[in-house]
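Researcher: Go.
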Amino acid sequence: MSKRGEKLYLVLAALFTGSLIVANLIANKFFSIELFGKTFILSAGVIPYPLTFLVTDLLSEIYGKARANMVVLGGLVASLLVIATLAIADLMPAIADSVVDDSTFHTVFGNSYRVIGASMIAYLIAQLIDIKIFHFWKSLTKGKHLWLRNNGSTVISQFVDSALVVWVLFAGIWTPSQMSIAILDLWIFKSLIALIDTPLFYLGAFTLPKWLENQNE
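Model: Structure:
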């Protein structure tokens, strides 16, 4: 691969990993938002998380399934590092003058292990499904209909992701009805974002390969 291709790959991998980690760290905060006459109850982690699916679709389109899977597995390793770091930091007693005391730190990050653990299970399965379905549609349509493989793969994989993360986090805590509502809210919202980011996927899928071909290196 060319130097420019490697640089782009690293930038996309960084965007993916950064979005994944931030989504996990802020996932404990929930908020409501009204769209199209419906009120969604969402985790703050949903803000950066759709970017991970856009990036994996671009990686799949430009670099192929194997290199897209490498980024997904790299995100898993980074998440494990975050869990270990938070666990150690939570054990360390804060000094009297610490801006953040032990209680505040534990309140914010004490549940992060479960959140990140649930997210890791859901994300790994969903991302691998996303990449597999993306390439299935690409092969079936002989490389045509970008919108179909972009949205088709994301909508299905986002349902898997939403169902798994809610089930792992709240099984035995929420009622089946509460979990069903949360799953549908997350899935519908993520699917809407996937539709909205379709122009971005088209832009990246058409311009980035040309940019790589026109290099002078």
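Model: The chain is about 75% helix and 5% strand.
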